Structures are given as C-alpha cells and as structure tokens.
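seq as requested:
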Amino acid sequence: MSTLEKLQTLIILLAVSIGLALGQISVIELNAEHFIVPFLFLMLYGLFLAIPIRDLRKALLNTKFTGASLIINFIWTPILAWGLGALFLSNHPALWIGFIMLMVTPCTDWYLVFTGIAKGNVPMSASILPVNLILQVLLLPLYLFLFAGVMETVQMSVLIESVLLVLALPFLLANATRFFLNKLSKNEILEDRLIPFFSTGQIAFLSLAIAAMFASQGKYLFENMNVVYTLLIPVLLFFLINFFVGRFASRLLKFSYKDSVSLNLTTLARNSPIALAIAVTAFPDQPLIALALVIGPLIELPVLAVISQILLFMQKKSIELEQQL
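struct tokens:
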C-alpha cells in the first residue's frame, strides 16, 4: 500500500475540515459548488482510464466467482441496504438515500489494495471490475427509484442528465483516449504517463471535490455533523452482515482461501466517488445525501483494513490446525 493510500482517510478528513472552514466565508460558499463536478470529472476520467474494459470476457468466463459476486452485489446488497435504512434511517430520508447510493455501488479501485494485503486472488478481483462498473452505472437509477422513492425528490430527466454528465462522459472520453493512443501506437503514453498521473492524482481530485462540496454547504453541514452517529450503526452492520454472507457463499462454493478473500472484499468495499458524483449533481439542494457518501468511506476504510487482518489471522489458524492434524 502506497503512502497516499495509507493516508487516504486522513486526507479525506482534512478535505472535509478545510471545506467546512472555507464554507464559513460567504463568497467561497456561494461559488464553491461550481468546482465540484469538474474535479469529480477528472477523478472519474482517471479511474475509467485505468480499468481494462477489454478484459470483460475474463470475468464472464469464471462463472462461479462472477455469479456469486453479482448476486451478492446487485441482488442481495440492495435489499440489505434498504432494510437497514428502514430500520435506522426512516426518520432521515436524505441520509437513507445517501446510504442506499453508497451500498449499491461496489468498489472499483481501493479494494484491490486490501485484497493484496489479505493475500487474495488479485487478478480475479481485477477481472470483475468492468462488470461491476457497467452494472452499477446502469442500475443505480433503478435502485433509487425502487428503494428510495426518489421520484418525489428528483425528476427522471435530472437523474439521467447527472448520469450522462458525471459518468457516461468521462467513461466515453477515457475509452476514446485508449482507442486513439492504441491506434497511434502510443500505448507507452497511456501506461507510463497518463495512468500513473491520474492514479496518483485521484485522491487529490476527490479531496478537492469534497472540499468544494463542503464549502458550498459549509454552514448547513457544520450544523448537522451529528449524522456520523446516525450512520455509524447501519454502516457497521452492513459490513458485518456481508462479511458473513461472503464467508458462507465461499464455503458453499468451496472456494480456495485466495478466492474467498476476493469474494469477501469485492462484496464489502463500496464505490463512494461514483455515488458522490451522482449525488452532488442530482441532489444539489440536499447536502445530507452527499454528506452520507463522504462519511461512509471514513468508516469503511478502517473496517476494510481490520477485515484484511482478520482474514490473514483466520488463514494462519487454519494452516496451524491442518499441520496439527
């Protein structure tokens, strides 16, 4: 794990703090919102640039792993998110929407780091990335309408416009970049310059977007920071329940330790940047939705780090038991 990845949670917290502080200045609060989408656009362009969509076939060939991952991520998890929201967030509809948006979007980047730490099957985990990416872009609007009652909150045209602006456009631009550099036989520019630059800059762009978002609604959000405590229990329960669901599915399908780690982490880690990009454009007047999507990773990253160590401990104990027998 690189230094930036180790410090990611602290960097995001710093961005939140700076945004809240700047938001107390009226001129910054009034203009900060104009910078949110451009920073998110750059972050998502870099993310899409590094995801090998051409490797989609690899994931589809591994039907057992891919099938288990897709069922947990796109059928079971949305139902779980709705249920936890109904139990703990029914009196906070904006937080409930943000919670659902966070939980129905599987991660497409940092979970690979934790998969590596826990000695899981990183290539297999990477192969599922394009499937997760495409499905969450297509299904997120559907989940919102089915589970969050968004029809009363935002028009379908606004939601579609948000998806096109912050997801489809950087996605198409990233793949166009790949296509033209390949045609010009300039793949070294992509692999040696663009991808490393955006990989390093991803946390910077995300942090700038978060700072701008908090600055744009600084005074309002500063008065509602108690939502951390409101979200803590449902978020922790989500990770706990899905951890055991992943373990059960791995045993049922007789996965090796490496494959079971990959299944666990691809069904636990969430993709807050994509959900955040949608939230700030589709729900500009409801900052608590975006706040839920920023608070989520602050809880998630430490949890994933702990789970990685738990998986390693379980493997160690399993090996010791086998040696004794």
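The radius of gyration is 20 Å.
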